[in-house]
Amino acid sequence: MLYIVMAYLWAAVLLYVLMGGADFGAGILEFFSTQKSKDKTRTVMYRAIGPIWEANHMWLIIAIVVLFVGFPVIYSTLSVYLHIPLAIMLLGIVARGTAFSFRNYDAVKDRMQGIYSKTFMYSSVITPLFLGIIAGSAVSGKINLQATSFVEAYIFSWLGFFQVAVGVFTVTICGFLAAIFIIGETKTEADRLRFITKAKHMSIAALTAAALVLLAAFKDGVPLTHWLFGNPVSFTCVLLAVVSLAWMWVSLFRQSTKWLRIIAGAQITLLLVAITYEHYPVLINLKDSEGLSLLIHHGSDKSIRALAIALLAGSVFILPALFYLLYSFTRQEEPVA
């Protein structure tokens, strides 16, 4: 039962990065668009994410519930020592969702639309930035349970070169995913070419940010290169990700978009496997002490059993409804007679 719960936790994180990341990326692309093309970019992205944008946060909720119920020690450590970036991320989610709703559904179109748009764009950048900072903090080994000052316990635990670099990398990944996913939603050749160009730019930005993460890991003493290249599984995943990246670039230059979504999803999945495999089952690396392990720091057997049953049962009802939601909004509309 414990492994079932762990599998759901990993899958929820992956799906939130893929689907929620593409959702955040829509605002990131709008943020980095020129003033001239913002309206066109916004129109295409709204058509793509508008119907299902709120459902993407379901995966984050599942991950939080799994941690809260199944791994209370890990949950409490994250929520206490990383409460500042967590609060900023959650405020960003609320601000972004509110701005998106008012911008697109407000009955009165006035100057407030500009405020809604800026709120949506800025929060689309801030939220994944701090999501990445939280992820980087969890593995950086900077969380100090023996800290004696506020700054050491609640600031230096997340504010560092490596953590911020991971945050920037997360932002670029979200923009990359959005550009790739939205290509298939375009209706005109001009829009398709525009988002192909954006995908190229965001891919370059992601590669640059990845190099920054490696540099920051070396400087801060985070064994990232060992995690990525120190075992056959991680090394194979990185190698496949590089091969798929080359395939993606060839497809972009040939303007062949048939497999782009699958390639992009595979790349993120391979990277997540590569990073998590080496230090499994440790979820949080701590400073000057052993990390928090999923196999050790979990709840009671009864809690784990009940949680696993709830997740399995919930999947029977939730997943078909989610797939139907996606189907309903992605199928072609039938012409009206």
Automatic annotation (TrEMBL):
It is found in: Cell membrane. It is a multi-pass membrane protein. GO terms for biological process: aerobic electron transport chain. Coiled coil: none annotated. GO terms for molecular function: electron transfer activity; oxidoreductase activity, acting on diphenols and related substances as donors, oxygen as acceptor. One of its GO terms (cellular component) is plasma membrane. Keywords: Cell membrane, Membrane, Transmembrane, Transmembrane helix. The chain crosses the membrane at residues 6-32, 53-74, 80-99, 120-140, 160-183, 204-222, 228-250, 262-284, 304-327. It comes from the Bacteria. Belongs to the cytochrome ubiquinol oxidase subunit 2 family. This is Cytochrome D ubiquinol oxidase subunit II. It comes from Niabella soli DSM 19437.
